[in-house]
Amino acid sequence: MPVADEEHPTPVTPSVAPVLPGRPVADRPTVRAPGPETGAVGGPPCPWCGTPNRPDRHYCTRCAMPLARAEEEHEARLPWWRRILDGRRTAVPWAGERPRLRRTFDRVLRWIVAVVVIGLVVFLGMKIPAGVQATRDHFSKRSLVTPDHFAASRSFAGHKPDIAFDGLSNTWWGPGVSESGNGEWIEARFDEPTRLLNLIITPGVSSKSNRIRESALPHRVTATITMKDGKTKTRELVLDQGPGPQPRAFAVGEVTKVRFTIDSAYGASKKKQVAIAEIEFFGPSGDN
């Protein structure tokens, strides 16, 4: 009797397939923008993002940046001298920043700079008036100034000291002694303090070259100037060996007396005496 073949059952697919073990994955966070903070209406805006914050906050509620940036900018705009002298106005470091160490050298340097600046201010304050006056004198017009009184250590007969200030170059003053006349002097005096800027000395008995050998010529002359406050100062004058007027800068300020002392002379001999034909003073013109 025939037998039927054995039937194999159809495999059933399971509802859950086997899987390998895996890593747990967390859900992604949802970023939410913060809404308006309670009590922040009309509050100071953040200098970084512009979000209004409560007046009592120090950091922004949105970006967490410090709200004191405006104050720091105000501190940075302080004058340089306040930033140097006021060491307490230093910016507070942010969280995570290392504060700058205050060394003794910084303080010493600050005081040195302060002393130098103060010294310069005092020096300029003392020198500026004199500089302004010197500038005015340099650019001012000149006018002839005539002394009020005259004197001399000694004078040759007929050649008194006032002749050296008469405006004529063919008259002269001489001490009446031969050789160089070392130590002899001639003096001009002013009743009122007078500002002098320039000086012209004509050596010899005349400004003409054909009379240059008739007398010895002053070489080195010391001018002793008496100021309006009674103090004196000296100015060394060196004249040329030649005829004619010899101008010299003579900005000595306001004076009351000027004495010219002869120290040496050109062409001195036993038969000649030193002579000065003319001395002229010039000061600022009244038109300045």
Topology readout:
Elements (H helix, E strand, L loop, with lengths): L68 H8 L3 H6 L18 H36 L2 E4 L3 E4 L32 E19 L13 E11 L4 E7 L7 E21 L9 E9 L4
Antiparallel strand pairs: 1-7, 2-3, 3-6, 3-7, 4-5, 4-6
Q: Would you kindly provide a written description of the structure presented here, covering whatever features stand out?
A:
By secondary structure, this protein is of the alpha+beta class. The chain has three domains: 41-97, no CATH class; 101-139; 143-284, Jelly Rolls (Sandwich), CATH 2.60.120.260. The chain is built from three helices and seven strands; from the N terminus they run H-H-H-E-E-E-E-E-E-E. The chain has helices at 69-76, 80-85, 104-139; strands at 142-145, 149-152, 185-203, 217-227, 232-238, 246-266, 276-284. Strands 1, 2, 3, 4, 5, 6 and 7 form a seven-stranded antiparallel sheet that branches. The longest helix is centred in the middle third of the chain and has 36 residues, at 104-139.
